[in-house]
Amino acid sequence: MTGDRPQNRAATRGPGEGAAARRPEERAAATRPLLESPVLDAHGHVGTWPDFLIPDPTAEGLVATMDRVGVTAMGISHLLAVGPDAERGNRLAMETAARFPGRFGVWQVHNPHHRTPLVTDGVWGVKLHPDVHQCPLDDPRYEPVWRLGLPVLAHGQTGSPWSDPALFAAVAARHPDVPLLMGHAGLWPYGFDRAARLADGHPNLHLEVCGSRITGRWIARLAAAIGAERVLFGSDACFLDLRTGYGRVALAPLAEPERALIRGGNLARLLGPRLLAPRLAAPAPDRSPHPRRDLP
Amino acid sequence: MPKFVFDAHRLIGPVPFDDLPADPRPEMDRLGIDRACVTHTLSLYSDPREGNDALLRLDDPRLVPVPVVVPGVPGASAPSAPAEVLDWGAPMIRLCPERHRFDLTGPVALRWLAELDLPVAVDLDETSPAQLRTLTERLPGLRVLLLNPGYRRLRALAELMAGAPGVWVEIGTVNTQRGVEWLAERFGAGRLVFGTGAPVADDCGPRFLLDHLDLEPADVELIAAGSLGRLL
């Protein structure tokens, strides 16, 4: 974070500069799908999760919602892969991406305990979840991930021994050529400022803003703190509701150029030609003997 | 696109842990929120009496006061007696049993709530589904607006709604994929209320969600304002 930036520059803009407006027809225009530039969701999932009920964990449901609100594509990891079986979950994610060409990119999950095989083609990058895997982000067991050089999205959680933003800063310094996305921007509101400060000195470290505790106001603050070009839209759908996540960006008190960067421009820049890779990927079929209860 | 949007849960005043707008109206204007139930932050983070006094001095029809009540024995309550609450003329009160350390289903709270006969807003983090079930069983006519139900306790929330028809639910934090539709299909949109908890909680996401619910327009109108109107 640079010291001369006003803390809440974007959040203090006048009412007329936001995405929403007072009259119904103006509101409709404000929240209509924004198709003039791609809307890219950097953080998505398919599948079920044991902690709670997800009413619609399907890829079909996600695509329907993406169409409803105008999200062009979403990077997904399968929640089975985040959980106990990364290899099979990764195959399921690749199959999902193949079934909906152009709508899903794949974040292949790497479980450091299982030494999950990694690929370089047909994926957006690598997903790490240091908290679920109970392996801190700076652990040497992640070396194969950094050597790959692909973008990495990792769960980030302020105060966590596994994924505190300070660990992101350390890893970003060690691997300056790896685009690193701090998932949830640290998750807890009391840590957002610190997460931005820690990221500020590392151009390869970006803040991805999904989570149940973040606000549109905080997204604008983060953009003011480290620049909108370092902030990325993510929803955490289907874990969370895509509409709520995207709505925080769509209606955040941001200027439109900043909003365009956050809602897709930045991720398109980071991914480059990789953005279209899922269209070309031919996934290996799932030959597991286990039934696929978590996908239709 | 709802014609009228009524936020059931906003705060007015400063909070100790962040630099947030003390006045909700500019953000309501920006997001197209026509009216809001408001509680003063002093009532939550300082003195309930002082917060309620400030709240009741507001003179804006867009802001509907929801004062905080602390039931208690003489000398421990705020205000001093239920009759004072009725004099305020507020359409709903807020209870914080965890924050203010009183027993929501104890004899004093039950007596106060029976005498007041007003809708009660309570945060799920301040109570539990079991406690609310007991409360609504003891006071069958009581209307409860459950604030901040979150998304991780959908199963327990559904069980509560099934057993306690006097419980309405704020949707702002029901944010797992299609969670609002899931509740609406089971309990009807008339039990669901648009609310945000802003500015501490987010209002942008819930406001956008309201415009993009996969429900019949009449159901969206209920969630946007009609359900709360009936509750109050």
UniProtKB/TrEMBL annotation, chain B:
The protein, known as: Amidohydrolase family protein
**Organism of origin:** Nonomuraea rhodomycinica
| Taxonomic superkingdom | Bacteria
| Record-annotated Amidohydrolase-related domain positions | 16-223
Keywords noted in UniProt: Hydrolase
Which molecular function terms from Gene Ontology are attached?
hydrolase activity
